[in-house]
Amino acid sequence: MPKTTAPEPAAKTAPAHTQAPKTKKWRVVDYVTTAVLGIAVGLIFWVLALSWKVLELGFQAFPPSIGLIAGLWVLAGPLAGAIIRKPGAALLCELIAAVVEAVLGSHFGATVLLSGLIQGLGAEIIFAAFGYRRFSLWITTLSGLMAGAFMSVSENIMYNAEWQPSFQIAYAVCAIVSGAVISGIGAWYAYRAIARTGALSSFASGRIR
Predict the structure, then answer these.
(1) Which residues is 134 bridged to in the sheet?
(2) Is the pLDDT reported for residue 122 higher than 90?
(3) N or C: which end of the chain has fewer CB within 10 A?
(4) How many domains, in total, are found in the chain?
(5) Residue 100 sits in a domain of what CATH number?
(6) What does the alpha-carbon distance between residue 22 and residue 20 come to, in Å, rounded to a whole number?
(7) How wide is the angle at C-alpha 99 spanned by C-alphas 95 and 103, nearest 5°?
(8) pLDDT for the residue 186
(9) Residue 18 located in a structural domain
């Protein structure tokens, strides 16, 4: 009796919504969407900047704890990285958001442009570390975490230099946690919500049920 061989198991593939685009080359729609995301998040930055003095009042008991909401300032990078999935998307989007905040008027002044560059680099590094080939909740969370870490260093140098080291460390911890939760996990689920509307049908990230 001839031997029969069992069929080889099918190779496992990543869920469609976590896959990378077929090419890393930028399209017009990539630039347009990155700009739209940057402008939208930049408006959020501007509102937060206008409200900053009021927000600070809620953290007077322990000033470094304001880092718990600092993750809002690094939202653009991880969100764009999760949606566009092209080299430079996270950095470019964070920079656009910073430019919007600066143009509309921020009491932080032109330093927001430097902050945008630093925070965008933090978010970009994680996507680059995975070769822009893998996209998932935990990678986006790492992107938010790293952006928060970069932000905490620059903020401690530019704005918190007069704080004692223990306060600066506490702020850094709060900012890193905030970056991971708000701009990492938050960005991932924001992307998923947008994708379900069908608005991302022209992106690899839009392949979601």
Answers:
(1) 19
(2) yes
(3) N
(4) 1
(5) 1.10.1760
(6) 7
(7) 175
(8) 96
(9) no
Residue 192 burial (CB count, 10 A) = 15
Please tell me the pTM assigned to this model.
Answer: 0.86
Least Cα distance to 194 among 36, 68, 74 occurs for 36
In a domain, 17, yes or no: no
Is 9's pLDDT higher than 70?
no
d(CA 160, CA 175): 13
The answer to whether 73 and 120 are in contact (CB under 8 A) is no
Amino acid at 130: F
AA letter at 124: E
2 vs 124, residue with greater confidence: 124
| Angle subtended by helix axes 111-129 and 89-104, to nearest 10 | 160
Mean of pLDDT over the chain: 88
Report DSSP state, residue 26: -
